[in-house]
Amino acid sequence: MNTMAEAIDKTTGAMSASELAGGIHSRATVGDFTVADPRMSCRDVDVWYGSKQAIKGVSLDIAQNEVLSMIGPSGCGKSTFLRCLNRMNDTIDGCRVTGSIRLDGQDIYDRSLDPVPLRARVGMVFQKPNPFPKSIYENVAYGPRIHGLTNNRTELDALVESSLRKAGLWEEVKDRLDQPGTGLSGGQQQRLCIARTIAVSPEVILMDEPCSALDPIATAIVEELIDELRANYSIAIVTHSMQQAARVSQRTAYFHLGDLIEVGETNDIFTNPRHKLTEDYITGRFG
Amino acid sequence: MTDTNASRPVPDLGGGHTVRRYDEELAKLRAIILEMGEHVVGQTQSALAALVDREESQAYRVLDREPQIDYLSLDADEEVFRVIVRRQPTAVDLRIVLAMSKIAGDVERAGDKATSIAGQALELKGLAGGLDELPEELKQSFRALYDRACCMFEQSIQAVAHFDVALSLGIFEDEPPLCEAGKELRRLLGDEERSELTPRQIVCLLTSAHALERVGRHASNIAEQVIYVALGQDVRYRNREILIETLRHQGY
């Protein structure tokens, strides 16, 4: 850490405007990465793909009932970091994660912890809608069935309906639950995937560019849904759309070359970011 | 006056976008404001000549040219809308666009003050027992107030050109002398010994004095917006002395 960076308080991000005017390019996180009552808590997380370090000492909390957006240029590590949160990186050969990631105080990388139920508690919605090649009903019922969340068909029917309702899809599909999920429109398929995630009663939902394959109307519907889901879940979303980050999230984290550069209230990040790299990126000056 | 050479270097806050057209659009918006400012300076100068030197032609010149500022104000509004729609500005760009919109309003209203002074000059001329020449001490007092107000206004426009925080602080530092110059002029106009002026003439002159002082106040408003752009701090309604001391201490 260089001399100027030492002047930046890692917790308070006390970086003066005059320092910014001088063009500091510090890699110390600016802003408070902690929250009072975190659902997930990450400390000094490093991720390596073989010899290449993709994430460098990132510390970040995810609060209960908040949407946290992660933004940054391609290759900055935001998706890699997101995938650490439910151990999706376990499936990648040569990927090594160090540091601490806790869900409700429990270390998710504890050797005794089974990643399968973890991924039910920390669900994930991907860039491209990926419904199973099954009926709409079965897409939602699959998770609860393998996790044994219901005792009989009546309970399963009720869970499918409530999940589809929470995903804002019930009215559109209630008369064709036996039809293939792949027959829905892109936006509907993505909401079906969200319903599938909700069905296993997660605590956290991770979304990796969930609207990048959707048209503006479908995007708006999913964004409205994200806002509604916040009442019951913690949501971390990776997005390349800064307008989307500004619209849907309460806090925003900016990543650059594997570093968490700045984190703060979304309103502050988009009106008065404190780090020059953040400002350059969100104003379109990033070269 | 502020030594502008001592100003801390401020980066070109409106430039350097990956999309160069965006830079051009912000530069165009700023150019409109600067052009408006130049017009206002000229208008105020002409208005003072009409009032103090009794140059009637200068008053008509001010009235004729007022629409130019109004039209530029409309252009600024249009450019603001265009940038918002096309670019959805964020961070410093958002602050620039919001500030420019407010600055355009202040510059336009400063132009209105010049028009008001020109109108008063013509009214003085038309009043029964018309006033051919102002008493010398009043002339000097009007010029002193004009010097303060116009200097502040010119500096505010320069500050907009470079988003110069130090220059903006200098404008704040000029507020007390502006206020004093205004008070002195009002004191002279209220002097019971001033029997050479009719009450109606005194009202015209007081109105003009108030308008001149307001030009300086608009400069202060503009300076507040410059600081908002450069530092992201809304300094409206903040204690001026503390603000100046704090920012000077930070090197501005």
Automatic annotation (TrEMBL), chain A:
Entry-linked Pfam families: ABC_tran
Q: Which GO terms describe its biological process?
A: phosphate ion transmembrane transport
Residue ranges constituting the ABC transporter domain according to the UniProt record: 40-282
Q: Which GO terms describe its molecular function?
A: ATP binding; ATP hydrolysis activity; phosphate transmembrane transporter activity
Presence of the UniProt keyword Metal-binding in the record:
no
Supply the alphabetized keyword list: ATP-binding, Nucleotide-binding, Phosphate transport, Transport
Its Gene Ontology cellular component terms are: membrane
Taxonomically, the superkingdom here is: Bacteria
SUPFAM superfamilies, A to Z: P-loop containing nucleoside triphosphate hydrolases (SSF52540)
Q: Which PANTHER family match?
A: ABC TRANSPORTER I FAMILY MEMBER 17 (PTHR43423)
Provide the protein name: Phosphate transport ATP-binding protein PstB
Q: Which organism is it from?
A: Imhoffiella purpurea
Q: Supply the source organism's classification.
A: Bacteria, Pseudomonadati, Pseudomonadota, Gammaproteobacteria, Chromatiales
UniProtKB/TrEMBL annotation, chain B:
Q: Which domain of life is it from?
A: Bacteria
**Domain PhoU residues, every copy:** 33-118, 147-226
Question: Keywords for this entry?
Answer: Phosphate transport, Transport
The Gene Ontology biological process annotation of the record reads: intracellular phosphate ion homeostasis; negative regulation of phosphate metabolic process; phosphate ion transport
Does the record carry Transport as a key word?
yes
Q: What species was this sequence derived from?
A: Imhoffiella purpurea
**What InterPro entries does the annotation carry?**
PhoU, PhoU-like_sf, PhoU_dom
Fetch the NCBIfam families from UniProt: phoU_full (TIGR02135)
A Pfam family of this chain: PhoU
Q: What name has this protein been given in UniProt?
A: Phosphate transport system regulatory protein PhoU
Q: Which family does it belong to?
A: Belongs to the PhoU family.
